[in-house]
Amino acid sequence: MKKMVLLLLPVLFFLVAYSLRTYKSSEKVTIENHQKDTHVRIDPNCASCFEKYIEKVINEGSNIFHYPSGPMPGGTVSSEDANKIAAFLATLQGFKPSHPEWVQEGKYLFYGNCIGCHSNGGKGQKGYFPDLTRKPLKGIEMLSQKGYGTIEKRQR
Fold this sequence. Notes:
It contains six helices and five strands, in the order αββαββααααβ.
């Protein structure tokens, strides 16, 4: 009986480790919204999806690119300011922002907080900081290609 337990113990550890690894790799990046249960793949042509992605990255940070400059820290501005910056960045993508009245203030916030890394005009620095004028954004493209990103569309 003791030998059987000793033989089953490594198998049990393997199954637990495998289950945890499978669970973590199947997690989806989800950006919550007011509307429940309407997940769609990240659509690079969706203005509200773009804004929610930007807001999430600003609020929570990101290390999707593993740049040598390190991850983008979350919370560099308030969540209200993140919304305004997202509205401004939407215009750089050619989108009509969900709150056009925030664009001007978002521009000032971007130039006051973000150009140190993303440079004047949001072009970034190749290999160190992403280009925020690239359409689609590299982060959105990566998430949609890997198939693990979902973003809920905003209600209008």
